[in-house]
C-alpha cells in the first residue's frame, strides 16, 4: 500500500480548514521563511506534489516522508502543522546540507528550496531564464528591483514585469511551476508595506521569442523596445 495522499484545499474548503486561530504552520525559532514557503507550495495547489511521491534518482526518502506525512498531509487535512514537525524537517536539512543553522537561524527561502529540491530530492530545475544570451536554470525567481516611487501598493504582475525588465531577463520556455519570491523579507527592511497577489500571471511579454502584437498597428511585432 502506497503513502497516504490528501488533495490540496480549494474554494470553500480552503476557507473552512485554513481560516482562524491555530491554523497554518506553527512558527518557532526563526522558521517563518520555511513556514511561508511550504504553505505557499502545498496548501492549495498540487503543482509540486511530485516532490511528495516521486522516487527521484537522488531522492532522500526519509526527508520526503517527513515533508509528506508530517507537514503537507496534516496541513491539508486539519489546516495545522506543529512546530515540532517543522523542527524534525529542519534537523534533517541540517544533517543533509552544508549549513548547520537550519534549526535556529533565519534563511533566504531560495537557499532552503535549492537544498530541498536539488540536493535532497534531486528534481530538475523548474525555470530556464536567459540574460545577455546566457541561459541559466533555477528553482525559483527572486524579484530584484530598485525602489520605485510610482509603486506604492504593487501587484505581483507589476513586480515580475519590472524585475525582468531591469535585469534584462526572459523565460526560455513556459515553466511548469513559477515560484516567485517577493521583495519583502528580513527583519530590517520592507520595500513595500503590502503587495497585492495577482490571481493570474500574464507571462506573454516575459517569454523569449514569443509572437506579440505591435502596439501601434496590431500586426505581429518584429522589434521590442524596453
Automatic annotation (TrEMBL):
InterPro entries: Papain-like_cys_pep_sf, Peptidase_C19_UCH, USP_CS. Its main location: cytoplasm. SUPFAM superfamilies: Cysteine proteinases. Residues 24-203 form the Peptidase C19 ubiquitin carboxyl-terminal hydrolase domain. Keywords: Cytoplasm, Hydrolase, Microtubule. Signal peptide: none annotated. This is CYLD hydrolase. It comes from the Eukaryota. The keyword Zinc does not apply. GO terms for cellular component: microtubule; spindle. It is found in: Cytoplasm, Cytoskeleton, Spindle. Gene3D superfamilies: Cysteine proteinases (3.90.70.10). The keyword Endoplasmic reticulum does not apply. One of its GO terms (molecular function) is cysteine-type deubiquitinase activity. One of its GO terms (biological process) is protein deubiquitination. It holds the Pfam family UCH.
Amino acid at each position: 500500500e502506497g503513502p497516504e495522499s490528501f488533495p490540496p484545499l480549494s474554494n470553500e474548503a480552503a476557507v473552512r480548514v485554513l481560516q482562524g486561530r491555530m491554523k497554518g504552520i506553527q512558527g518557532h525559532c526563526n522558521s517563518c521563511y520555511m513556514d511561508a514557503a511550504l504553505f505557499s507550495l502545498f496548501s492549495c495547489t498540487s503543482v509540486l506534489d511530485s516532490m511528495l511521491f516521486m522516487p527521484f534518482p537522488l531522492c532522500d526518502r526519509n526527508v520526503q516522508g517527513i515533508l509528506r506525512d508530517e507537514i503537507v498531509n496534516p496541513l491539508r487535512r486539519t489546516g495545522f502543522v506543529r512546530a515540532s514537525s517543522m523542527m524534525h524537517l529542519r534537523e534533517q536539512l541540517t544533517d543533509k546540507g552544508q549549513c548547520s543553522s537550519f534549526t535556529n537561524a533565519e534563511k533566504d527561502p531560495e537557499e532552503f528550496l535549492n537544498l530541498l529540491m536539488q540536493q535532497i530530492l534531486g528534481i530538475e530545475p523548474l525555470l530556464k531564464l536567459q540574460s545577455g544570451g546566457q541561459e541559466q536554470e533555477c528553482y525559483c525567481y527572486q524579484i530584484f528591483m530598485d525602489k520605485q516611487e510610482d509603486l506604492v501598493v504593487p501587484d505581483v504582475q507589476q513586480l515580475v514585469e519590472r524585475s525582468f525588465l531591469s535585469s534584462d531577463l526572459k523565460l526560455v520556455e513556459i515553466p511548469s511551476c513559477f515560484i516567485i519570491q517577493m521583495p519583502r523579507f528580513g527583519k530590517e527592511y520592507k520595500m513595500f508595506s503590502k503587495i497585492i497577489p495577482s490571481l493570474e500571471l500574464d507571462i506573454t511579454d516575459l517569454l523569449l521569442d514569443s509572437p506579440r502584437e505591435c502596439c501601434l498597428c496590431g500586426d505581429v511585432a518584429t522589434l521590442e523596445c524596453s
